[in-house]
Amino acid sequence: MFRHRGKNRTLKHNLKLASLLSGVAGIVNVTGVFALKQLTTNVTGHFAFFADEVGRRNFETAWGYLLFILAFLFGAIVSAGLLEAMLRRNKRLVFLPPVGLEILVLVGVGLLNLEFIMQHRIWVACCLLFAMGLQNALVTRVSNAVVRTTHLTGLFTDLGIEIAQLYFYRKEEQQKKLKDSMKLRLTIISFFFLGCIVGGSLYSAFVMKTLLLAAAILTTALVYDSAKYRMMKLKRKFARP
């Protein structure tokens, strides 16, 4: 799921990655909206709010929106830096530092008490945006920019284009490529919505601890990836004459 990069990646790898991480993003998204009244998985809306507050000369509020944007950017920078550093040290574990850091951030925020969160909403939102910046950069790099899991605007645009192209591109190879791409995009959209629904359902009972589910999903993915890799090594070992 995480280990296969470049030409080694298949549609199956991308579908697994997409379903897992878009579900995590959905949980983070709905938790951020309910608890903080802020979008915590993308920065598109924050640019509009930032410009609006600057226009109104509400510079203190505008500063908060600028922090959101920078937090997401910083997450992407840190994720890319960790990936590059690990590529030069241990390619087998290249994905571990950014995923591990994302888990730590989600667990840390999930264990904060509600009073602290209400007093420091901007900084808590920045932590979640940082985590989503980590995730978005990781999945973009691992999948060669095929999978994006933290926002849906571009996905719906691409999906609309591909639906239209089905009518015009009739060759079997073209149809297969389009349908595979549509399947991937629909998977991301579906699991993002599923994450939102599950996260929203749990929020009333667990509040910010809902983020622990997102962290648990990521942890399970790491364990699964590691176990699968070990199994493959054992199979190759015993397959040798």
UniProtKB/TrEMBL annotation:
Transmembrane segments: 62-83, 95-114, 120-139, 184-204, 210-227
Top-rank taxon: Bacteria
Alphabetical list of Pfam families matching this protein: DUF1275
Record bears the keyword Transmembrane helix: yes
Keyword Transmembrane assigned: yes
Keywords for this protein: Membrane, Transmembrane, Transmembrane helix
Name the UniProt record assigns to this protein: Uncharacterized membrane protein YoaK, UPF0700 family
Organism from which the protein derives: Pontibacter chinhatensis
